[in-house]
Structures are given as structure tokens and as C-alpha cells.
Amino acid sequence: MSKPNVLILRAPGTNCDAETAFAFEQAGAAAETLHINRLLENPSLFQRFQILCIPGGFSYGDDLGAGRIFGNQIQHHLDAELSRFKADGKLILGICNGFQVLMKSPVLLAPDAEHGPAATLTLNDSGRYHDCWVRLETHGHKCVFLNGIERMYLPVAHAEGKFVTRNEAVLQQLDAAGQLVLRYVHADNPNGAMADVAGVCDPTGRVLGLMPHPERHIDPTQHPRWTRGEAGPVGDGLQMFRNAVGYFS
Question: pLDDT class for 33, splitting at 50, 70, 90?
Fold first, then answer.
């Protein structure tokens, strides 16, 4: 079978596109990086791809808030194409800033007509940028990207990664629906996220946003203590990309 085609969608300020493309290629996909302007000029380009990934960085400098400008572009100019992309059974992944972008658009969690967004990502409790490694646990079996994964050790690097819902009832609804699929081991929660949430999927399980960076741990030598023998045979993040590729096999 031919390799699935992955669109790595970047904007001014994106800085994790090359390593994200490399991670997908290591997992067996064919990755192509495009600037958001190319999609705005020709939205039909989406039809060439089976997987969309919005990587990390600081899109548009996070000038109006992390991911907001990029998310607004998607919502107001590419919503029809993204809706068709999802309806066709394809996959969407947002990593760090990409997660923030998805949260600022209706792609991941559809807003309520009366009350607005169900959740957002806001400033870390510490009020500062965090760059560290964290332990993670998966919850449930809904998400395609996390299939067969129980635990991961991945780096985070963000200042606005705290997941908060509109109210406690929304948090319970998302939890009951199995959408709070990735959580920090409590002591490793770097931002104060509600319920230690590190990643959220949509109701289909085919759209995932997460704050940690799986593309930064696909090789054992990327583990911060690999010389001490603590790394596994492959990096913990690689299986996520393999799952995405395997979904189309």
C-alpha cells in the first residue's frame, strides 16, 4: 500500500515543522510542509492528504494569545475544507501550539451556541514558560493516535498550556465521553491543568491535541538520561506517529 500523505501546516512563527515531518517519515508516511497562505489560496490542496498536523512553535508570535490568529484563519477561511477532511475519516493532530490552534477553532471541541467555547488553554499557574520532561498516562481507548499506548515520557515547552473547561460540568461531560485521553502523572503537571489534562480528542477519536512534544522523543538518544540506560529501544513518541500511519494500512 502507498504511504499516507501528511500535511504539516505551518505559519509565521512555527518552529517544529521539520522535526514533526521527520517523525512522520520515520513512521512510514510521506510528509509535506505547506505555509498556511498556500491553503488559503487553494483550499482544495487538502484533498491530497490523509493526515493533517499543526506543529509546535509560536504562530504569529502568539501576539493575541497562543494559537489565536492561526485558529481564527482556520475557523473563518478553511472551516468547510476542515469539516470535509474530518467527515472523510481522516486524521488531525495538533502539537503544543498546534493544540492551542485547534482549541481556538471549532475543529477539536465544537463551541456551544449559547455559552461559547467548552474549554481553552491558558497561562500556566506559575505565570512563566516551562521547558521540562513529564510523565504521561493515557485514559480510555477512543483516540487513534494513542492506540496501545499506556505511558509516555515526553518534553513540554509552553507558557499557555493550562487546560481549563467552562465549568466543572463540561469537564465531567468530556471525561464521561472519553475525550480527556492524555494526562500528566499528577506530580508532573507543569501548568496546573484541570484534571491533569495534557491532551484531548474529539468525539470521533480521530482529532487529537496535546501539549507535550512526541516528535522530540522518537529516538532513544533523545531521552535526557539515555546514557544511564533509562531509554527504551525507541523514543516514547514514535508510536503515536506509527499509529497514525497504521490507521490507513
Answer: very high
